[in-house]
Amino acid sequence: MELRVVVAPVFGTNCCVVSSGADCVIVDAGAGVVDAVTRLVDDEGFTPRAVLATHGHADHTWDAGELCARYEVPMRLHEADAYRLADPFGTLSPALEAAFGLHRDDYRAPAVVEPFATPGGSAVLTFGQVTLHALHAPGHTEGSTLYRPDGDVILTGDVLFAGSVGRTDLHGGSGQVMSETLRDVVRGLDPALAVVPGHGPATTVARELETNPFLAADRT
């Protein structure tokens, strides 16, 4: 498994291209990544098998429709966040919508959406040679999901950042549910895993367990 990151120009979303052999999946196609992702895919000779999202906010799904159409692949995300794809701005605050600098009329929803469930809190998703372990991690949104490819890395979306965690004050967010996710899901992760968050620098589970004040507070 290999992972490459393309940083979106809007809100600095980390768009990840996860590959195994010639197959790849694209995770969190934020606004403005189409050209860079297409160059990467072409240069490496990859065959995209799906576009995924860690959750349904616009900064993680804006270019998903374009990439799905370009590669004729489905959009995959947790079933609890699938409703957001029809209007990814609809569940954001007016201030955040304005901050995006994007226009609703320019949004292209994915034509084929295949939500997945996580019975018991997890699921294994297979796309050709790429396998991802999906861990349901609600709190930021109802369907927020961590993706762990085969290997020593985990994609945490807007659940866990270097030194922080995702906000819970937007539609579908919950501080109580986030606390439960931090306690029951994040703190149970292998400390050896590298973390690629939805925004900002990479970190490690071990570092966050030791220094992240939100995880430290959650110990009580």
Automatic annotation (TrEMBL):
Where would I find the Metallo-beta-lactamase domain in this sequence?
Answer: 12-199
Q: Name one Pfam family in it.
A: Lactamase_B
User: What SUPFAM superfamilies would the database entry show?
Assistant: Metallo-hydrolase/oxidoreductase
Keywords noted in UniProt: Hydrolase, Metal-binding, Zinc
Asked whether the UniProt record includes Magnesium among its keywords, one would answer: no
Would I find Hydrolase among this entry's keywords? Answer: yes
Under the heading InterPro entries, the entry gives: MBL_Glyoxalase_II, Metallo-B-lactamas, RibonucZ/Hydroxyglut_hydro
Q: Which cofactor does it need?
A: Zn(2+)
Write down the PANTHER family for this protein, in alphabetical order. HYDROXYACYLGLUTATHIONE HYDROLASE GLOC
- Name of the protein in its database record: Glyoxylase-like metal-dependent hydrolase (Beta-lactamase superfamily II)
